[in-house]
Design a protein that fits this description.
single chain, about 130 residues, mainly alpha, Helix Hairpins, three-stranded antiparallel beta sheet, 3 strands, about 5% strand, extended
Amino acid sequence: MPMAILIHGGELIVKGNKKYMHTLQDVQQEIDHLVKEEWHSHYWAPLSSLARLTEEVGELAREINHLYGEKPKKATEAEGSISKELGDILYIVASLANSLDIDLDTAFNEVMQKYRIRDAKRWQSQETTVPINE
């Protein structure tokens, strides 16, 4: 049975096999607690975080290529996971946002509003009806 994970003010995130949804703010707070309180460390400089993010995106690309592309893994290569690579990317993005004091919930809401306005009609069906002359 997994141990309960408590962060900032005792907010219950995982207890037993029951999982609760994380907001992006929850993710950022949990990473901030890990870095500052558990590791007694600090965030990397933004350029170093960007390099690390690029590395993780490359690892994701490699896994996707192995599963869906033209390049299968060698028999000697360890099994990878797209899910784990996406998790690594989320961790780095949240760490970078924390280091720059960016609230990812706000950033996400702003970008969704942008897409809703900009692309409101872009992805609608392109089917047209042609009137039949009778």
